[in-house]
Amino acid sequence: MDRHPTPPPAHPSTRRRAPLLRVASALLTGALALGGCGVRLESPPPAEPSPDAIEQVRARTVDDALALADAARAAAPSADEATRTVLDDVAAFSDRHVEALGGVYDSGLPDATPTPGTAATTPAVTDVTGVLGALVDDAARAADDADDVPDGALARLVASVSVSRDALADRLAAATGAPRPDPAPAAPDVAAGTAADATADPTAAPTGEATPGDATPAARDGARALALAHDEAAWTLAVLAARAADDRRATLLAAADGHRRASDTWAATAGVVGRPTDPRRAAYALPGGLDDPTVADALPRTLEQAVADASAQAVADAPAGARADAIASLRTATVAAVAWGAAAVPFPGMPELATTPVG
Q1: In the list 37, 56, 229, 323, which could disulfide-bond 318, CB 3.0-4.6 Å?
Q2: Where would I find the H helices in 271-323?
Q3: Which of 257, 248, 206, 259 is nearest to 341 (CA)?
Q4: Residue 230, Cβ neighbours under 10 Å: how many?
């Protein structure tokens, strides 16, 4: 008799279970490996993020600057010397604008394949008349954007770019003898508002439509600083007028009167008229050497540049939709500074960006 009987054969279901378990284990291992690598076979490819209102303004201002630079360089070779000088500044200033705004946004994603028939059909500007029209239109669009954009710092920069373009348009029209065109109607995606204000009569005072109760604390601070800058300009120009010859005295007195009225308007906007918080003074310090004609001649443009700086800060301080007067003030001061002999700059009212030579 056999003392060690042969064990019975494994059950058929047990023999089938082993290979099934091995297959399941392999599938699970593969799934874990794919998960660890971040691979999701069912996930769609990444899409470009939708730009918010701030990015739309920044990108639009960059695109306009790039187009202006290209147009100015295309038109320059056939222009006369005076016109070519302005076109060179258009290109150089626009390059600076692109740089200050951060350049073209690149998400790192592949460019989308364009749909047939959807490519832009707007012809490139290559002539001086086209450059002049583009400067006017782009200045107006940037003024609208500066008034509306939620970010105050970007509003200040875009307002400066707008005023720079506006000044370039004035120079190009003067160099060519061509009339300055009116801005084209705003595109549907650009809110209407401040273009007319930013391109208005440069001698006009602020409208002062905002009331002190409507202004934010920051906006009142900006208005108060502007009232002070205008008051100092008015007082100093009056002193210069008293020391000037007759042919210059009338110009200085007219400028002083304009600044005095603007100071009163901004003081009312700030809500400081007749209050201890009114920053305006009875007198201001004068620079030394006023008997030197060079010093005396430079002082008016220095005063206007100080008003421009305060205006640009007032743009940043004011809330969105309430910056029209500050933008107009920036343009007014920039035009006046140039009239007193100041050089054209790519960033009016932003002295921190004026350290790098242009051209």
Answers
A1: 323
A2: 293-317
A3: 248
A4: 30
Non-local (6+) Cβ contacts of 354 within 8 A are 345, 346, 347
pLDDT at 22: 53
Q: Which residues of the chain have pLDDT under 70?
A: 1-49, 107-123, 187-214, 355-359
CA distance 16 to 5: 25
Helical H runs in 204-292?
A: 217-243, 246-270
Quick one: CA torsion of 227, 229, 230, 233, rounded to 10 degrees? Answer: 150
Which residues, other chains included, contact 259 with Cβ-Cβ below 8 Å and sequence gap of 6+? 230, 231, 233, 234, 237, 307
pLDDT of 118 reads 43
pLDDT tens, residue by residue, 225-277: 999 999 999 999 999 999 998 889 999 999 999 999 999 999 999 999 999 99
Distance of alpha carbon 205 from alpha carbon 228, whole angstroms: 15
CB atoms within 10 A of CB 216: 12
Handedness of CA 321, 324, 330, 335 (dihedral sign): positive
Provide the sign of the torsion angle of the four alpha carbons 262, 286, 331, 222, taken in this order: negative
Q: What domains are defined for the chain?
A: 52-105+126-199 (no CATH), 201-350 (1.20.1260.10)
Angstrom distance (rounded) from CA 41 to CA 208: 61
**Would you tell me the crossing angle of helices 217-243 and 246-270 to the nearest 10 degrees?**
160
Q: Are 203 and 333 in contact (CB under 8 A)?
A: no
CA distance 283 to 108: 58
Number of helical H runs and strand E runs in the chain: 10, 0
What are the E-state strand segments in 126-239?
A: none
pLDDT score, position 351: 96
Specify the pLDDT at position 282. Answer: 96
Going from the C-alpha of 199 to that of each of 7, 21, 107, 208, 222, the distances in angstroms are 103, 79, 35, 17, 21
Q: Which two tokens stand for residue 282?
A: 């009875």
Q: What is the pLDDT of residue 106?
A: 72
